[in-house]
């Protein structure tokens, strides 16, 4: 009798840690894979909606990754996209309903954007690329990691846009309290408009690539 | 490879499970959601007369300060009066009137189409600090979805005491600014009638009220930069909704 019992992998093995931390930088869904750009434009005029959006995406992505990963051997490949869509859509509706019931104020803030999580490319990307071929636990970590990667970019953009566009941080009037308006400072209205989000994303990508040469493509 | 039969069964079972989960979640959560919506409506009404209510005491404050609810027809007569938790006239609770339906009825009537029953518009009468306020709910179309609000008039029926606005999905930072105090405070002290009680409504002016003639500025507020369509929508919402009360108000001031 062979005693070749497979060594159980620790929950946070180096490989699993990578699943969480890689998407924050090297494999960031927004700045490196350039996915989910649409929602990064839409919800980042203020910090609060950006934050709640990030949390919602995290809940949906982690849950969808786990469910798809558990079902992965039963899903017929010909209808796998449909199955993924149905599950994501169901989760998004659930999140929306729960927010409406127990966090009504927050759900009002987000309005249509919660529904738009369904169309977020990061979700389908992770389901297709990862959850379909991995066990539930790594899939869960992968979901959390990618959502975090999405979240920190969103929150950074929202911070910049809200600070310079509306002069506030989380609706707290920073610029006013610093007395900058009295010396002639004006909010930059351009910051509130969607193109500014792209420019901020561009700057983040620029900084990231200048620090990490691996990300720069060969010509 | 999976057979077609398997695929069909798989898809059907999945859809049935998802439908069951979603509908039971919706049924279970519905009472909570409806309570939220009702509380929000009460809080909005109270906010327009500057009474700050929170979720817990909204109902109590509402019963204390809103002394009368009226349902008015376009001729300016009350078809239903709800007072002291009971009906004084009619059996239509003005609070439960769906403004959207009534406005649509009005629109159909104006277009010469037939509708079931005449449109009825709610008005709330509030007594607070020994003053009487008349609160009129508003509803209209914004850029991305519905917008709504309440406007509280002082007892001369023309001076605005306070307003609230809400919206379903106006652009954050732009159109959504109608829900901020900075925008709403502009309306305080403006008038919806001129001195001869000719209906002027309150316009939301692109470029600011400084572009209006000085004697007209009392009927206007500044629009939101970058939120032009929402600003226009607010102006037409106020005009459309208030015009339904013109007949009633003219009867009251005589």
Structure in words:
The complex is a heterodimer of chains A (219) and B (254). Helix content of chain A is 61%, strand content 0%. By secondary structure, chain A is mostly helical. In chain A, helix 1 (14-21) packs parallel to helix 8 (136-165), helix 4 (80-102) packs across helix 7 and helix 8 crosses helix 10. Chain B is an alpha+beta fold. Chain B has one domain (42-252). Chain B has six helices and nine strands; from the N terminus they run H-H-E-E-E-H-E-E-E-E-H-E-E-H-H. Chain B has helices spanning 4-48, 58-65, 99-110, 181-184, 228-243, 246-253, and strands spanning 66-72, 78-83, 86-89, 121-128, 131-141, 146-153, 160-167, 203-205, 220-222. Chain B has a seven-stranded antiparallel sheet with strand order 3-2-1-4-5-6-7. In chain B, a hairpin with a 2-residue loop joins strand 4 (121-128) and strand 5 (131-141). Chain B is globular and about 80 Å long. In chain B, 35% of the residues are buried. Classes of the chains: A mainly alpha (219), B alpha+beta (254). Chain A binds chain B through residues 43, 45-46, 49, 74-79, 82-83, 86-87, 90, 93-94, 97-98, 100-102, 104, 108, 111-112, 161, 165-166, 189, 192-193, and chain B through 2, 6-7, 10-11, 14-15, 18, 21-22, 25-26, 29, 32-33, 36-37, 40, 144-145, 166, 168-169, 171-174, 225-226.
Cα distance, first to last residue of chain A?
Answer: 56 Å
Order of helices and strands of chain B: HHEEEHEEEEHEEHH
Shape of chain B: globular
Order of helices and strands of chain A: HHHHHHHHHH
Radius of gyration of chain B using CA atoms only: 22 Å
Oligomer: heterodimer
Number of strands of chain A: 0
Largest sheet of chain A, if any? Answer: none
Q: Count of DSSP E strands of chain B?
A: 9
Radius of gyration of chain A: 20 Å
Estimated structural class of chain A? mainly alpha
Strand proportion of chain B: 15-25%
The helix content of chain B, as a percent range, equals 25-40%
Overall pLDDT metric of chain A: 87
Structural class by SSE content of chain B: alpha+beta
Strand order of the largest sheet of chain B: 3-2-1-4-5-6-7
The tally of helices of chain B reads: 6
Percent of residues of chain A in helical segments? 55-70%
